[in-house]
Amino acid sequence: MGLRNARVRFDGAVAVPEAPNRCWLTSLTTAIGPVAREEIGRVMHGPSAWVAVMISHLAERVGRLFRIDQAIYPDHRLLSTSLYTPDRLTAVLAEEVRFADRAVLIRSLNAFSHRDILAQAYKRWPFRVVWIVGDPKRDWCDRRDARRDRVRLAQSGLRHDIHRNGLPEVMLTRCLSLYRSLYIDAYSRFNPDYELEYIQSLLAEGCLEIHTLSDATGIVAVCALHGNDDMLTVPMVGYDRTRPAGDGLYRSIMTVAFEAACAKGVALNLSAGAGRFKAHRGAKPYVEYMIVIDAHLPLWRRTGYSLLAFVLGRAEPHLLRSAA
């Protein structure tokens, strides 16, 4: 339930991926395999890229051999960033393991929000680099690019609407079409491909709110916001890619997200990618980690997570360099 490219069931607040599973949000072998190779192709060239691709293939095979996808994800709503307050994270780490044959994977930890937890002796994987604006009012509002973005949005004539409890099916279908055009068609088929009913359920729960920009023809840009008392994230973005790039729809819809964070007085996690765009708007890069809890598993299963933690740890310095 939830994704068109992965089968996931929920046990309370715990996401339990099952086969088939070809989404990086719920499959570690997909993340370190084909998704890593796509990213290598975008940011690396020459012999170093060939070496990195070979390492990715080897890591994927090791992962499948040691069944690293046989795992659970506490508090995972199938969004790009899982949010944990310090108290909730402490509670999750202290919970008894309910699935004896599965590792417990805690996603989306970074030094901005979880420095104390990361300093402890957990097995952790550096996963990607995310961009965080710690104080949007201080770090974003007065920047030249931010001022230009706000002027562009104000002069665009686009109508901004906020949808908190749900959308008519035709409108949500349009929103998902814009998202898929960007994140599935243009970026990667391994990105989360959401089912309409699942997004409606998140809206009904108050877990998401959807912001749209529209003109006389209908919705032309969309972003979904997910947050808690300390942080706002942007798990979905889309815009009409058939329009000229000069329309600035991406800049406009991201301005909506920045303004929402300012209004709420919280930090803004902009996820990975588009580093230059985000840095020019006050965001700073942070390595995002995943904690692996596997002490209850047999030695041969723990070995797989340990081997890959070692390999990824050696690659960590390259993450920040490639994100710049």
From TrEMBL:
GO molecular function, one term: acyltransferase activity
Pfam families, sorted: Acetyltransf_6
Keywords: Acyltransferase, Transferase
Domain BioF2-like acetyltransferase span(s) in chain numbering: 143-278
Keyword Acyltransferase: yes
UniProt-listed Enzyme Commission number(s): 2.3.1.-
Protein name, as recorded: GNAT family N-acetyltransferase
Native source species: Asticcacaulis aquaticus
